[in-house]
Give the backbone structure.
Amino acid sequence: MKKLLSLTLGILTAVGAFIDIGDLVTDALVGARYGLNLVWVTVLAVVGIAAYAEMAGRVATVSRRPVFDLVRDRLGAKVALANLGTSFGLTFMLLIAELAGIALVFELVTDVSYLLWVPLAAAGMFVLVWRVPFKIMERTYGILGLAMLVFIVAAVALGPDWGELARDAATPSVPEGEPIPTYFFYAIALLGAQMTPYEVFFFSSGAIEHRWTPENFTEMRMNVLLGFPLGGLLAIAIQVVTAVVFHPQGIPAESLAMTALPVAMALGKVGLAFALVGFLAATIGATIETLMSTGYTAAQYFGWRWGKFESRREAARFSTLLLAALIAATAVALTTVDPIKVTIYAVFLGAMTLPFTYIPIAVVANDETVMGEHVNGRLANGVASFYIVLLSIVSLAALPLLILTTAG
Amino acid sequence: MPVPRWPRVRAGVAVLLFMTLAGCVGPTVVDAHYRGKAIESVEGMRGVIDAVIATVETYADGEAFTPFTTRLAVDKEEEAAWIREAFATRQPPPGHDDLRRSVLPLLEDAVAAASEVRIAVQRGRSDVAAELLPRLHDVSARLEDERRRLR
């Protein structure tokens, strides 16, 4: 029973990791603008993130070495440092967006400007990360994240023409009047939102923090193979509700409030309350994960002691970096920079750097000297190779599309 | 053999100068671009007003909290004002004053309607917000007519 509970909570945590401010904003945006014509991106992203998270978890479990340690080993110190700089920068941008996201949810509940909530959200994060045990922390936001299921209920309650939605999803096309480059700009933004590297850093670092051994492979695979697809299902549900309510009328959805509005229309105040609790859980969970990931990436590269279970004195540089990142993110969020724009740029720029995170993982997972009998099989290698090609194309196309479409 | 540096610098300066000048004199005076901007503004404003309609209908039916609806109304009013400003401050090319005269009042009506919704919602008056629905539908229909005419 205890094991089943642990498994369920692990799955919920993976769901929480998949849905963050990037997803909440991007899913609604593409649903309203393109209907279900970009669902294929979510399917691709779910398969990709599940495959690579499994690989990263397996590598971390077998080698007892975190992702960035291995990246430095494989790419050399200088290239890995550039990779670290990019990953750290993007994770930091997402940290700003997630922190502001918590504040935006409180703004929706109270109508008090989100700027006043930002310092309080940061203080709350400080307490959660420094004072609350890891398991309680991740399980609480995992369970509260269940409130996001309200989007599936709302999708059913809206009573859409499922046949037509299925046709849109199965035979995607660029809607009439929409420029083709913009369609692909949003496809890349969605992929970036759903395959964010910090999810993999957090997952593999968690494997080391939890001291997983190969005996935990089943648990790890269940988390990945059920958690991420469930997260994908929620992402598709958001796309469905915004596609049904906004797409036919050409109403854009570019804010958290617009993401929640279809739920209120379908289920009233109770549904809206669930959606807001779900948003809060998703943004709190993602803030913790992005904050921890800023520390993980730097500490793992430089070989510092790191981890939630280490005492602050023993992992002093790691803890200091986390604190500095939290203070800096709070300061940036308070400059009135538009958090939604930061989110869109972060997920899009993140898509450009995806190969630099995922290629080294595939290389190490395929290295028999490190992995022994747990080396990648044919299927894993096939999937990994497909995504390396795909993510490389995405990376190359991203900047021209950003310029050509003036960011959508 | 080392590559001479100055020709590269001169070429770079020339490209920068060309891009800057093209940016200054290009889009705003091109007729099609101004018309395109007008269509874009009308379409964008219609999206905003339809979002306001959806918001008010939900609020009037008692299906959304006042703070949530207020944030939506404030956001939509700001978006509407931004669309109006972006079009109003654009210099029309010669011969396009009529286009400006037909589009701008529509955009202004839309902003005024969005503002009234925000005022009503901020006061917690769902009944007053609901009374604005016919006006919002009228603005939306006029924007749609204008969009069709321009297309």
User: Anything to note?
Assistant: Chain B is about 80% helix and 0% strand. The first helix of chain B runs from residue 6 to 25.
